[in-house]
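Predict structure. Chain length: 253.
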Amino acid sequence: MAVMREVRNGLFNKWLLLSALTAFFVLVTPCFELIFDTYAFTQLDYLYYMTFAESFSGLHPFAILFCMLPYAASFFDERKSGYTQYALLRAPRRRYIAVKMLAVSCAGAAALALPYIAVALIGVILFLPVTAQTLSGYYIGTLWEPIILGWGPGWVIAIKAGLMALFGAVWALPGLISASFFSTRLAVFVVPLVCYQALWTAVGSSLWFPMEYMIARSSLIPSLLMVLGRQMMYAAALVALCAISMNWRCKHA
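Prediction complete.
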């Protein structure tokens, strides 16, 4: 199973385009008032503008859906069409599973990171540079304050785009787990979304909720190391569950 071909299939398909465009629209909608207000973009800096996208958009409740939509259902489609059996004749089962997880994760990463970067670029073009005097209170007392003052505000955008990509890569994987068990394409997306919403209800007010690490906006998060550590912990658990569920399904393909 060609790795680059599979990754390319994940990155260049209509579902990724649809997911990225929808995520972009969801992120940029709260910023419309600022974008079309001449006073705003002659008086405000671009990190202040980004607080609207990060705090008031409707992305967070459905973030996992944007991660899965681009390519997670490909495994479902392949096993239903019989292509999985053909692929397993040409490549070892472990390789097939690993390549599929890689492609799905790459597509999930792009589906969230690209819209975030596009929204941020609008802010950089239209709004003022960030200074210590104009720094929004949104960032005071968070892990981002020393990064802004020490490294520069551009690093905040770059790091948050990376965190969005990491979140997308990790939380696209539940779609593969779902695709291993259910017999309808809709269930591939609906079941993980319902589980995500249930998790939000159960632990949404704590730092165990994965969404808190999508852009690390909570003032309770002490460092980027915590963000990376928690996401890697979730990634390890999801990769293991993917491997187990897909291996079982491939045996019964």
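Summary: Residues 12 and 127 are 32 Å apart (CA to CA).
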